[in-house]
Amino acid sequence: MPAPRTADEERAASVTHLLALEAAGTLTPGDVKTVAEAYGRSPKSVQRWMQRARDNDGQYQRKQRDATEVTPRMEEELIRWCGSIAAAHRTLQDDGVMPLSYSAFHAAVMRAYPPSFLAGLRDGEKARRRYDLHGSHRDRGRRNDAWEADHKEADVWVNVDGTARKPWLTLFVNCSNSGICGWAVTPHTPSSQAIIVAIHHALQRGGHHGPFGGIPKLVRVDRGADFLSKAVAQTMGALAVRRVELPPRRPDLKPYVESLNAAFKDMLFRGMPGYTHCPDPDPAARPKPPPLEGLLTFEALTTEIRSFVHRWNHEHRIRSLGNRTPLQAWKADRTVIHDLPPGALNRSLPLVRRTFTVTDTGIDWNGRDYLGPWMRHHIGDHVRLRHLPGRYDTVEAYDAGTDEYRGTAHWTNAASSHLLKRVKEDNAADAARLKEALRRRPGIVAERHAATATPAPPQPLTTLTTEQARQRLRDPRDPHAATPESLPEPTGSWTGTGHPQPPPATDDHLPTPTSSWLTHPPATPSPPPPEQEDQM
Q1: Which of 25, 320, 387, 427 has the most beta carbons within 10 angstroms of its beta carbon?
Q2: Does residue 405 register a pLDDT over 50?
Q3: Cβ partners under 8 Å of residue 204, min gap 6
Q4: 209 in Cβ contact with 184 (< 8 Å)
Q5: What was the pLDDT predicted at 244?
Q6: Is the CB of residue 319 less than 8 Å from the CB of residue 303?
Q7: Percentage, residues of the chain above pLDDT 70
Q8: Within 13 Å of residue 36, how many CA atoms lie on the same side as its CB?
Q9: Could you tell me whether strands 296-297 and 158-160 are parallel, antiparallel, or unpaired per DSSP bridges?
Q10: By the 8 A CB rule, do 338 and 214 touch?
Q11: pLDDT of 206-238, one tens digit each?
Q12: Pairing of strands 368-371, 363-365
């Protein structure tokens, strides 16, 4: 099969045929018009093609425009103006080093640089990455060969103890079938505790956990501080799970969990009350949380997420899996699953470094008392504790010498909910008082200056009249106001005009005599008249 001809070759063939008709004397204007309509051009354009071929010994060639190269000076100005071609052209014209028109300079820049480079100059690396090309999803592999983990902020406002918040999800996805192995939801920004809870949920199988789970070979994570924490590393390392740290800002390297994040937004959050991406009737208004009425509670959101996870794993069909559900793809894979050994889940928790002694009141750790029914037979024993990061309601105890598991201990002297509510209200009051003080500070500290259109030092604006200034000095509410108690007491050196007199001259203040005093002695001031005594 012959190779397809290019557009120039087709145009050259048409021009050669027209020249042959012209040489035979059979060329008509209709022939030229027919060729022009085939190429979407005017008959005059076809006639110019024929003339160019006559001037080139009957061989048609496209007219080559003079390609102007971008000089280093042009590139420097383009970088300086962050990719603004118009600003760079204007600056070069002002300097007298731009021989091109704007259209010619624009065409030269577009030929010299790809759109990704110009977008990066304008808006940075994030804009440049929009032009990156990514292939289809990587090889899925076998089940539990690899997992992907990520955090996802919920696209919905939720009522959390009387406050509108956007919770966060922590997800672990099996790459072989896109099944959700483990998840956790927190009402605030997640930490390593949410990751460990999600890992524990992902490792277990059976019951409400479903068939998905087991111990994977590796987990791909981004470079978030919580995913790189020592607690997460210890939890994964205890089970010989390799943690693969992906480069920053590369969501294409964990496509399955990113696809799941988009599915949560489109298939779950979009239909909930308080959806954050609904069109705003007043786009100019500052976005703010919606009223609490009608919002889901945190418990209701958790229930909805649990239901969605079940539908995703058991009912949702994925095209890249051959239109199968994750459960069908999981069952079709016969790879051996390595389940957790008994007690391995608690041993993967972070370990408290010091040892503790079991007494008749339990275990005392940082002022917290922990009790468990197993302690009655182990009073006096030394134990070590493991617990979830950030959670102190329960701890797992192990013998300090043999590392044998003893049992779970519960925090007994925790503050009541009523007391915690009072502490929360006091904290909120302090925060409101500080917020009001910080709101007033700019008007107290900042000095306002007059606007100007000429180069001149800033001129401060006088915002107080003389009477207002005097009133402020007498205002007792002003901590910087001058009060009668803070003014100095008048002394005998003060006159009626309110200006102190200079101190009287003493011997220490008299000038030292010089030789010129012999001929021109200084004038001696006359003594003051003696004071007359009051007559009786």
Answers
A1: 387
A2: yes
A3: 213, 340, 345
A4: no
A5: 94
A6: no
A7: 82
A8: 16
A9: parallel
A10: yes
A11: 887 789 999 999 999 998 899 999 889 988 988
A12: antiparallel
What angle, 0 to 180 degrees and rounded to 10, lies between the N-to-C axes of helices 255-267 and 298-314?
A: 120
CB neighbours of residue 260 within 10 Å: 23
Neighbouring C-beta atoms of residue 464, cutoff 10 Å: 10
- Which tokens belong to 126? 């994030």
Q: What's the start-to-end Cα distance of the chain, in Å?
A: 145
Burial group, residue 75, by CB count within 10 angstroms (0-12, 13-18, 19+)? middle
Instruction: Please give the average per-residue pLDDT across 397-402, as a whole number.
Output: 92
Q: How far apart are CA 446 and CA 331, in angstroms?
A: 69
Nearest 5°: phi and psi at 329? -65, -35
Radius of gyration of the chain (CA): 42
Q: Are strands 147-153 and 218-221 parallel, antiparallel or unpaired?
A: parallel
Whole-angstrom distance, CA of residue 212 vs CA of residue 147: 12
> Is the distance from CB of 412 to CB of 393 less than 8 angstroms?
no
Q: Report the distance separating Cα 12 and Cα 60, nearest Å.
A: 5
Kindly report the number of other CB atoms within 10 A of residue 500's CB atom: 13
Neighbours of 229 (CB within 10 A): 18
**What is the Cα–Cα distance from 8 to 438, expressed in whole angstroms?**
71
The 3 state secondary structure assigned to 222-283 is: CCCCCCCCHHHHHHHHCCCCEEEECCCCCHHHCHHHHHHHHHHHHHCHHHCCCECCCCCCCC
Q: Which of helix, strand or coil describes residue 405?
A: strand
Distance CA 520, CA 269 (A): 103
Check if the beta carbon of residue 92 is closer than 8 Å to that of residue 73: yes
Token look-up 């978030």 returns 224
Rounded-to-integer distance, Cα 422 and Cα 424, Å: 5
Tell me the whole-structure pTM to 2 decimals.
0.63
Residue 488 pLDDT > 60, yes or no? no
CA dist list (Å): 166 to 45, 154, 156, 160, 197 = 63, 6, 6, 9, 19
Residues facing 220 on adjacent strands? 148, 244
**What φ, ψ does residue 17 adopt, rounded to 5°?**
-65, -40
Residue with tokens 């460990």: 196
State both tokens at 68: 């102007």
CA proximity to 248, closest of 126, 134, 148, 154: 126
Q: How far apart are CA 311 and CA 306, in angstroms?
A: 9
On whether the CB atoms of residues 308 and 268 are closer than 8 A, the answer is yes
Each residue of 281-332: pLDDT tens digit?
A: 776 667 778 888 889 999 999 999 999 999 999 999 999 899 999 999 999 9
